[in-house]
């Protein structure tokens, strides 16, 4: 990914810089917390394991955040666990009504022609969770950007959401 011509985290950084610095952000699967280091916003950085004191080590399906306390949740190349749907459910829990969900994922994971998930089915599952799609950008050859907004009213029929399987990322040895 370091050889990619464009890094998805930089696009998300630019998105945040174009919006209010008062927005509170949760970066799920933050890695080296690059997002927090490059924006003025208050950012809660989460990863499963970390030696960085600015990163909260936790399971992303159970963060220490209060319900409806976050304006923007980011998943930048971080929907890796087989229980990714529980990460998205946690994002829904912590987001305020009308909060934003920004997802950047490896493009091959959303290519049905090569065994990836159907992006329409993935977007439908997130919509069923209680979000409205605001952006689907497949123009980059390496990754996709999927942006959503949490609906104002709770979706009472959230049980039985059909989540597609996201295939693991395969990296070529160089």
Largest sheet: 7 strands, mixed
CA-CA gap between termini: 12 Å
CATH architecture: 3-Layer(aba) Sandwich
Strand composition percent: 25-35%
Which structural class fits the helix and strand makeup?
Answer: alpha/beta
Provide structural commentary.
Pfam families: Methyltransf_8. It contains four helices and seven strands. The protein is of the alpha/beta class and 174 residues long. It has one domain: 3-Layer(aba) Sandwich (Rossmann fold), CATH 3.40.50.
List keywords for this structure.
seven-stranded mixed beta sheet; alpha/beta; 26% strand; 174 residues; Rossmann fold; single chain
Overview in brief:
Its main location: nucleus. By secondary structure, the chain is α/β, with parallel strands linked by helices.
Give the secondary structure arrangement, pairings included:
Blueprint: H1 8-17, E1 25-28, H2 34-38, E2 43-47, E3 55-57, E4 70-76, H3 84-94, E5 95-106, H4 119-129, E6 131-137, E7 143-150
Parallel strand pairs: 1-2, 1-4, 2-3, 4-5
Antiparallel strand pairs: 5-7, 6-7
């Amino acid at each position: 990914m370091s050889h990619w011509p464009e890094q998805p985290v930089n696009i998300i950084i630019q998105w945040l810089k174009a919006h209010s610095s008062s927005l509170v952000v949760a970066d799920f699967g933050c890695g080296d917390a690059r997002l927090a280091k490059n924006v003025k916003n208050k950012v809660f950085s989460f990863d499963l394991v970390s030696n960085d004191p600015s990163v909260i080590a936790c399971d992303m399906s159970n963060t220490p955040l209060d319900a409806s306390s976050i304006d923007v949740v980011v998943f930048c190349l971080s929907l890796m666990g087989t229980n990714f749907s529980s990460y998205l459910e946690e994002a829904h829990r912590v987001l305020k009504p009308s909060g934003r969900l920004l997802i950047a994922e490896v493009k091959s994971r959303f290519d049905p022609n090569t065994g990836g998930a159907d992006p329409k089915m993935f977007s439908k599952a997130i919509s069923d969770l209680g979000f409205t799609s605001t952006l689907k950008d497949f123009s980059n050859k390496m990754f996709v950007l999927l942006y959503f907004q949490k609906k104002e009213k709770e979706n009472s029929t959230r049980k039985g959401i059909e989540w597609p399987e996201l295939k693991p990322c395969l990296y070529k040895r160089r």
